[in-house]
């Protein structure tokens, strides 16, 4: 018997999530992973690498609770928000019995984590405007223990109607956990549901330091929820999820100075996004630039595959979204530095000329 045959059937049949680094590419302008384009200047201060770290580093928890406006008992810190996604499934969904529900087009790890855990993936496609199809969700809640909503949504960049989110929370009371993925919430803080936690004990908010805090390589995320929900997740989480160097840098990033720096970065990205959106609308071959409340733009092209290949040849790596439902011809473009945005626009001009020559 081969080693592969010893693996669980669902794992053998699983299509893994294709992260930006797995997909790879060769270039010097990386606009495919929604990262901040410039590395922050933090230095390690901790030296106790011979000791196991705290499961939940007290200073990280306290600072994030203060930043998010919740109590420290309402915060769990994890290895990126991706671990939080899986923890919620492992905690609330019984394999081969319960289901989780999500609304594509959206972040791919919800489905992959569910499949890995042996939990049914139930898809309810978003409406044409990428808002929640609440009647369809209501019709598909049987045996659903967990609902994932990304807000703002990745890869479309739109905010979910808050009235719809409240209706979703009302219809799932006593039935399912609603996990709202707020990975990009720093770019639209007014849309956060953290202030709703006291009203909805079945609400969880997923957060990360990867995006606005410019610490994607740190792998530090958070789950916000009420005390009972957090206590349940703590039963399931690994003994030492956050390495000492990660906790050290996260504590610095969540200082008052670190938060000021993050907000400056958000303002800078928003300025570049507005410039790039306008510039793209003036590029031939661009069908539509979708409004975004995040650090990326979703753009539909008349010849997306050729544009993607041309940009790659120019050393500019973006993310192809053509396999997502309703996103044919769409590329997702991270907002880089002003110079990187200019390089992208210049390359798109030559891409259109190349496409026209071939027609």
UniProtKB/TrEMBL annotation:
SUPFAM superfamilies documented for this protein: PLP-dependent transferases
Modified residues (N6-(pyridoxal phosphate)lysine): 211
Pfam families, sorted: Aminotran_1_2
Keyword vocabulary terms for this entry: Amino-acid biosynthesis, Aminotransferase, Histidine biosynthesis, Pyridoxal phosphate, Transferase
Cofactor(s) needed: pyridoxal 5'-phosphate
EC number: 2.6.1.9
Top class in the EC scheme: transferase
Transferase among keywords: yes
Any GO MF annotation of the entry: histidinol-phosphate transaminase activity
One record GO biological process: L-histidine biosynthetic process
Top-rank lineage group of the source organism: Bacteria
Reaction equation(s) it catalyzes: L-histidinol phosphate + 2-oxoglutarate = 3-(imidazol-4-yl)-2-oxopropyl phosphate + L-glutamate
Ranges for domain Aminotransferase class I/classII large: 31-348
Family according to the record: Belongs to the class-II pyridoxal-phosphate-dependent aminotransferase family. Histidinol-phosphate aminotransferase subfamily.
Subunit organization: Homodimer.
Name of the featured protein: Histidinol-phosphate aminotransferase
Upper classification of the organism: Bacteria, Pseudomonadati, Pseudomonadota, Gammaproteobacteria, Enterobacterales
This protein's encoding gene: hisC
